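Question thread 4412

I'm putting together a teaching handout and wanted feedback from people who do this every day. The idea is simple: show students a protein as raw sequence, then show them the structure tokens that encode its fold, then repeat with a second protein so they can compare. Below is the first pair exactly as I plan to print it.
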Amino acid sequence: MQIRLDDKRALITGGNSGIGAAISKELSRAGAKVAINYINHQELADQMIQEIKDKGGDAITVMADVSNPSEVESMFKVIDDQWGGIDILINNAGIDGNKVDSWETELDDWKQVININLMGSFYCARQALKRMIPQKNGVILNTSSVHEIIAWTGHSAYTTSKAGMSMLTKTLAQEAAPHNVRVLSIAPGAIKTTINQNVWSNQKGLNDLLEKIPLRRIGEPEEVAQMAVVLVSDVASYVTGRTIFVDGGMTDYPDFAHGG
């Protein structure tokens, strides 16, 4: 089965690096027009745009801080001007924040993670739904994490933001379903990106990580991206309000393979 997204208009927040970059490329490969949002490293976004255009794709860059609702609104207006609307939103922009126990964290640091990961996703979803609901079509895919259900010491803001995203996904899906608009989440586990390179490039850290993954390997960004393409396509037209885990079985709690 060949999945095509010809002429679908897609926005990928945080789309110039890591999983976001992989999703941007896979959506373009499937025929979608892609708007790559970034806040830092414009050179990476520009490089991706050129690469996509060289392969015959249609792509633009849109700079915006997703935690700022005014900038989000302006970003969507740019896409309106360019393409006349949006069909796919990938809420991918996010940070994990500093590792620190909750009682010692700086409040501003904690709020920043929530503002980018959760509030930013809501701001973007809100603007997307304003456009998708009237056209009676569209898909929002939120990038969550295995940590929407697995606690992570030192990262209470991150886990809270992803758990919140889970319920945001379900609620938006319930609201949007009568209008033929789907809302889902995709939850990566350990994926080989620069953000966690300090773990997988260190043998001790890698070994510890692999013990948490039944498939005994780290995932590639392209594996998340390929599932994202499936979920936003008509192949998944009867799927909404759910989180799809792409984690090598991490949420299957492999320690229990040896007994309780």
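The second pair follows. I'd like the answer to focus on this one:
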Amino acid sequence: MSTSRPSYTAFAQRYAIAIALVLMVIVLSLMSDAFLTWRNITNILNQNTPLAIMAAAMTFVIIGGGFDLSVGAIFGVAGVCCATVALAVSPAVGILIAPLVGLILGIGNGVVVTRLNVHSFLATLATGLVFQGLAILISDGNLIPVRNDTFTWLGRAQYFGVNVAVVVLFGFAAILTIVLTQTGLGRRIHAVGGNQQAAELSGIRVDRVRIATFAISGLAAGLASAITVSRISMGQPSAGAGMELQAIAAVILGGTSIYGGEGAVWRSVAGVMLLALINNGFNILNADPFFKDLATGVVILVAVGLSVAGKRQ
């Protein structure tokens, strides 16, 4: 019995999210004819693409043993920069500048965490406040509308009924999966998150690895912001407020260990989609919003419990 428990816990951590997704789809399909329609499914995917992109990259940070509470603020800064440049230069340059801004701010996060030797939770909480102020400074606290059909291509265009943004999500997630599972960087991230001291003794440049995880997280926040600004044709300094907590919740829900060293990109994306299905299901069924929050909280608590149990095992 004692030898079987760890395997059950590990299996639950790895595949519980997939099982939960399938069960949720089955239940909602039986309860509402409006759920399992092409329009509803594509709407769910499109609406949650920015958050899924951020959660996919947040997986790197958490596997590496850190947290990034600044991605919501980076989202806001990248968004207002995107809209400003789109108006001043061109829509294409505006779209491209957002991921670049996110990458630069993400690198800044990594440098603060490693050089000042401050816990990432506190460091990114502080940089997030700085980035929020920066977004307000750039936009002067105002919305920045962009009235240009070319600018909306990334956020609104569809091919064969599938949004371009959804294709970007799956492409980005596939690239991150390859990096995490098939490259030296991915192996070093797992090593650093699993045991930082052992990683240092084995010759891994821990600071560089941790900076890389925050850089990827910032890049993803910028990309997600470009998609959102393109969709709504407007830059908003406060647009990303709260998204950092949603991304972390989705990553933990996907079975990534809060202690680092274990996780998968696909499970984080699945975590976003499970939260989206819960929200969509309650909306379709016109249920009390209180029960939606209750159900979401219970699901996240179970995921955290599995993570803690896995660590103890």
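Top answer:
Good format. For the second protein you could add a caption like this: The chain has one domain: 4-312. The chain has a mean pLDDT of 90.
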